[in-house]
Structure formats: C-alpha cells, structure tokens
Backbone:
C-alpha cells in the first residue's frame, strides 16, 4: 500500500486562467515577434547565398583571389554567432518575464 503524506497535494495549474491574463498575452506577443524577426533575417540571408553565389556581383574578386562569395559566407558565420548571442541574452529576459507572469497568476490566487 502506498504511503499517503499529510502534505497538501499540489493542484494543477489553470492554464486557461493564465492564457486569459493580459500580461501573458503581452509576453507571448513580444516573444513571438522577436522569434519571427530573428528567424526571418536568418533564413533570408542564408537562402540568398545559393541564389547570389552564381550572380556576377559575388563572383568578383574582392581581395586577391577571394571572391564575394567567400566574404558573404564568412559573414554568415559571424551572423550566426551574433544571432545566437542575441537570442541567449534575450531568452534570459523571456525567462524573467515568464516568471513574472507566473508570480502574477499565483498572487491572484492561483497555486
């Protein structure tokens, strides 16, 4: 037989109540806007590489025998590192905002 403790059982979180909160909806909107924007920039710049690689503009030699394709490709690596860094820093603020939403839910009588 299972041991039953006298501690109060944790009640499930009412996700519908959280979803109805204005602070939650504002948080989701900000997060989705950021994620869509950063993803769009990332995809557009990466999809342009195979398209522009065969265009005369990136076939020109820029530095010695280094063509524009190499410079653009190196720029994509730099962009990836920058976008990852920006995302990690922004994710920390999203974590704080999510904790604030949960704290507001609990302050209003949620568990």
Residues:
């Amino acid at each position: 037989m299972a041991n039953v403790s006298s501690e109060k059982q944790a009640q499930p979180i009412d996700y519908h109540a959280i979803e109805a909160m204005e602070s939650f909806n504002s948080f989701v909107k900000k997060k989705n806007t950021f994620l869509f924007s950063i993803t769009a920039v990332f995809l557009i710049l990466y999809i342009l590489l195979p398209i522009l690689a065969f265009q005369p503009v990136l076939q020109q030699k820029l530095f010695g025998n280094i063509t524009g394709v190499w410079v653009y490709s190196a720029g994509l690596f730099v962009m990836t590192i920058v976008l990852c860094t920006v995302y990690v820093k922004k994710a920390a603020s999203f974590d704080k905002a999510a904790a604030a939403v949960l704290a507001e839910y609990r302050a209003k009588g949620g568990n």
About this structure: Residues 15-107 form one domain. Residues 68-107 form the longest helix (40 residues). DSSP finds four helices and two strands in the chain. The chain has a mean pLDDT of 88.
